[in-house]
Amino acid sequence: MPRRRSPVDTTGTFFLLDQLQPPLDWAAFFGNDGPVEVEVGPGKGVYLAFAGAEQPGSNFVGVELARKYAGLAAQRVVKAGLGNVRVVAGDAQKFLDEFVPERSIAVLHVYFPDPWWKKRHRKRRVVNERFVDRASKVVKVGGELRLMTDVEEYFRESVDLITAHPGFEPIDESRVEAGDAWQIQTNFANKFRVEGRPFFGERYRVLAGVEA
Ligand SMILES: C[S@@+](CC[C@H](N)C(=O)[O-])C[C@H]1O[C@@H](n2cnc3c(N)ncnc32)[C@H](O)[C@@H]1O
After folding, report:
1. Which helix (H) or strand (E) holds 87?
2. What separation in angstroms does the CA of 199 have from each of 13, 38, 80, 147, 151?
3. Nearest-angstrom CA–CA distance, 200 and 131
4. pLDDT digits (tens, 9 = 90+) for 100-135
5. What is the pLDDT of residue 169?
6. Nearest to 29 by CA among 14, 39, 46, 50
7. Which CATH class is domain 14-206?
8. Nearest to 93 by CA among 104, 73, 108
9. Is residue 1 predicted with pLDDT exceeding 70?
10. pLDDT tens digit string along 147-159?
């Protein structure tokens, strides 16, 4: 008879957005005052688990729309024994708008967001004007917005939106184009690396003077 795997208990790691009380108190949410990094759309949580292990002094929260993936990400984190990572199932824009206090996070990560190829679906893209403006407010001054995608056209559009906003300056002298200077670990990055597909990334510093 096939052996049943015992379910992983994700209590304390996995949350539904609707169960949380806005605005979040990060010290209470994580049980410490460490810096907080937010990942939008973590999928199955490869980056969250990697980063949580690499930076034990930081806290990470991934906000994932697909509940199934959010659950898988939380299981990965629990199996890795990481107490500094949380996963929230819900919409990232709502999370940033209503739950994340202004000037409260160190880094906002967006890796391989869904491209929504068809023109009539473009408005569903995570990186849009509203997102960029909210990013400029929730990230602390001196903190970072990091973006990576395999879709060059999405990348260029995102760069244009961010460049047009007064709240950011690029960190990297030249953009990471058709390459992978960060050696980033995400499910999609690892897949594309094996396939030899190029991807594009940029890091921005959040500037003072654009107050909410
Ligand atoms: C292409 S996958 C990339 C996953 C992961 N970042 C990686 O690099 O492997 C994009 C993910 O973003 C999630 N997503 C799309 N829109 C979202 C939103 N508004 N809020 C949170 N997650 C979202 C999708 O459900 C999906 O898991």
Report:
1. strand 85-89
2. 31, 21, 28, 11, 7
3. 19
4. 999 999 999 999 999 988 788 878 899 999 999 999
5. 96
6. 14
7. alpha beta
8. 108
9. no
10. 999 999 999 999 9
Ligand 1 lining (C-beta closer than 6 Å): 40-43, 46, 63-66, 69, 91-93, 111-114, 126, 186-189
Chain centroid to CA 32: how far?
A: 20
* N-to-C CA span, the chain: 60
Average pLDDT of span 1-20? 87
φ, ψ at 182 (rounded to 5°): -85, -15
Residue whose CB lies within 8 A of the most ligand 1 atoms, among 112, 121, 197, for a mutation test? 112
**Mean pLDDT of all residues belonging to the chain:** 93
**How far, in Å, CA of 109 to CA of 153, rounded?**
19
Instruction: Dump pLDDT digits (tens) for 129-140.
Output: 999 999 999 999
Q: How many CA atoms lie within 13 A of 52 on its CB side?
A: 29
What sign for the dihedral angle of Cα 82, 97, 144, 180?
Answer: positive
| pTM for the structure as a whole | 0.95
Q: What angle do CA 181, 189, 13 make, to 5 degrees?
A: 110
97 included as an active-site residue: no
